[in-house]
């Protein structure tokens, strides 16, 4: 019998309108590239990731449009968000400057974050890797250059963040176990039987897997 741990993390890509947040999500979740997507209002996407043998994460991703009038929705979601992708467009210097000017101010201190230089396939790049790495160092976060056109490093960007969240959560775990925050259950799917450790909500263990 295999023991499987199921966790739930919530993440949010942040960045100016047009940097490619929705396209990045489409590439990560559906492995598809849909050019010229319309401005997003807000949508919740869900996917599953195995982060190490026996540990699965149900990943909820809030995609909120980067235009100014939609930004008031962001603080509503921040308290439930475990980590952020700070996305800028490598062909747009303003979107790079806005990471510090517009997006960092939304974040609680020490939030797990990955800085993503997006559209790395584009010929007309105007932010150098050195500048971006310098910003990442200043912010104390990892830096990944990705392209949703080619798919290059898209998985890496999301999974670097998920691993970071996982490490942070594990640090807080001994305290959770003392309060009995999870319950071991048998999960039967077809011919497979596995043991899962599920979080307790109130006094119930739950899973939507
Ligand atoms: N060259 C190139 N273009 C891309 C890439 N990703 C997205 N685009 C284009 O960038 C434009 C904006 O992409 P979106 O995904 O709509 O941007 P967004 O950040 O979600 O925009 P909002 O919903 O307004 O916040 C679209 O025309 C995409 O086709 C990429 O990796 N390379």
TrEMBL record:
SUPFAM superfamilies: P-loop containing nucleoside triphosphate hydrolases. The keyword Isomerase does not apply. Keywords: GTP-binding, Nucleotide-binding. Pfam families: Ras. One of its GO terms (molecular function) is GTP binding. The keyword GTP-binding applies. Belongs to the small GTPase superfamily. Rab family. This is Uncharacterized protein. It comes from Neogobius melanostomus.
């Amino acid at each position: 019998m295999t023991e499987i741990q199921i966790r739930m993390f919530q993440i949010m890509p942040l960045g100016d309108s047009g940097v490619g947040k929705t396209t990045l999500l489409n590439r990560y979740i559906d492995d598809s590239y849909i050019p010229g997507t319309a401005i997003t209002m807000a949508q919740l996407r869900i996917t599953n990731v195995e982060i190490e043998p026996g540990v699965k994460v149900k990943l909820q991703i809030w995609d909120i449009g980067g235009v100014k009038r939609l930004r008031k929705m962001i603080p509503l979601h921040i308290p439930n968000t475990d980590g952020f992708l700070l996305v800028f467009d490598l062909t747009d210097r303003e979107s790079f400057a806005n990471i510090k000017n517009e997006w960092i101010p939304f974040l609680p201190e020490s939030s797990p974050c990955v800085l993503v230089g997006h559209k790395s396939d584009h010929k007309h790049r105007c932010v150098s890797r050195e500048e971006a790495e310098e910003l990442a160092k200043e912010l104390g976060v990892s830096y990944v250059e990705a392209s949703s056109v080619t798919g290059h490093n898209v998985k890496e960007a999301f999974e670097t963040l998920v691993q970071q969240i996982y490490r942070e959560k594990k640090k807080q775990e001994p305290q959770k176990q003392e309060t009995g925050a999870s319950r071991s259950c048998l999960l039967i799917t077809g011919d497979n039987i596995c043991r899962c450790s599920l979080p307790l909500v109130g006094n119930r263990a739950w899973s939507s897997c």
